[in-house]
Amino acid sequence: MTRSQELFDKASRVIPGGVNSPVRAFKGVGGTPVFFKEGKGAYIIDEDGDKYVDYIGSWGPMILGHGHPAVLGAIHKQVDIGLSFGAPTAVEIEAAEKVCQLVPSIEKVRMVSSGTEATMSAIRLARGYTKRDKLIKFEGCYHGHADSLLVKAGSGALTLGVPSSPGIPEDLAKHTVTLEYNNLNQVAETLADIGDQVACIIIEPVAGNMNCIPPVEGFLEGLRTLCDEHGVVLIFDEVMTGFRTALGCAQSVYNITPDLTTLGKVIGGGMPVGAFGGKAEIMDYIAPTGPVYQAGTLSGNPVAMTAGLAVLNEISKPGFFEALTEKTTLLIEGLQQRADAAGIPFTTSQVGAMFGLFFTDQDKVTSFEQATACDMERFQKFFHLMLEQGVYLAPSAYEAGFVSAAHDDEAIQHTLDAAEKAFAQL
Ligand code: PMP
């Protein structure tokens, strides 16, 4: 028995399913989850002492790799002088100023402790600001586990939303409309019908929770125009894409100005941080300036702010994103070549340092329907073949992958050599 198996048995006795977040349980790929004890640069080391090239990076935050000296140094300094005060600190201003400087659509920003809190709060703010109840989201996008967001489409796009988890009141779910990602006509038709009831549209500008699906040309622009026409607040959920697709987030890649943006992951550098921000006029609607309530005991926590700020400073260095994007391209082009050579139907996607791998004969995957039609069995086999060779990919075919600045030529070459063997065995 491996130590991971031992620990999983032990964990399952006191933690539901043995994990503190469901995807970690390996349900999507089968087998026992790997328990980790250490991270160094591009690598993570498990409880059995095995080393893996890490393409999850804690689901996005570890953009500098594990144990970056600038981040650790900043954290150590802060830890020595104070963990938390529940009162204003200077470092939270510095972090907010940095975010506003890097993302011009964010005029004011409020820090929270997770991506879920960020999206939940942004939606409450949009509802309070517009005095409307409905929200539009897209199938295949994930925005955390707030009640209004764990909702799926009813029998048709325009029918009332239904809870996608027990515990969510139908009365609440009915206010959520779920439409098809990359289908602008459907959004236009829906808004023509119920536009005056819709508070906000929330979208991942690059979908990263159904593998990695970039927006088709004109989709985000179209959403911006439609939101303006109908007085709807456009929320870009950049919890995953923020400071991951580009220094100015995905909104800078596609040149769209959302009304509100939600952030998480990279902005905390591995500490629990989320944020939501945008137009000052809307943000001033939040307490204590405005009537919409939102709060947090650990919001703007000085250790977390210090860590996030250190990461933002590192990724702002000239050439950082160019180099990181290049590494990511090297990886996915290498994977494509090896799949092609082995005759495996396969395609990829990439925006900045975020990528997707699809076992499909389609040239390009642009919809949730196409993402779910990929060969899941092949993905599962590929995942385990890579894991056995020391490459840790997301244990689900519906997750994006992440490359860090610490992924050097050696780590990428190791990945490509492993993939060559894996493709040959598929
Ligand atoms: N939005 C997006 C786009 C996400 O990918 C996630 C988490 N993967 C969330 C929100 C929720 O963030 P958290 O897990 O920090 O609550």
Descriptive account of the structure:
- With 426 residues, the chain is an alpha/beta fold.
- It folds into two domains: 3-67 and 318-425, Aspartate Aminotransferase, domain 1 (Alpha-Beta Complex); 69-315, Aspartate Aminotransferase, domain 2, CATH 3.40.640.
- The protein contains 14 helices and 16 strands.
- The chain has helices spanning 3-14, 69-81, 90-102, 115-130, 170-173, 184-194, 219-230, 250-254, 280-283, 302-315, 320-342, 368-372, 376-388, 409-425; strands spanning 36-40, 43-46, 51-54, 108-112, 134-138, 151-152, 162-163, 176-179, 198-203, 233-237, 260-263, 274-278, 347-351, 354-358, 391-392, 401-402.
- The strands form four sheets. It has a seven-stranded mixed sheet with strand order 4-12-11-10-9-5-8, sandwiched between helices. A four-stranded mixed sheet has the order 1-2-3-15.
- Helix 7 (219-230) links the parallel strand 9 (198-203) and strand 10 (233-237).
- It is globular and about 55 Å long.
- Bound molecules: 4'-deoxy-4'-aminopyridoxal-5'-phosphate.
- 4'-deoxy-4'-aminopyridoxal-5'-phosphate is lined by residues 59, 114-116, 119, 142-144, 204, 208-209, 237, 239-240, 264, 274.
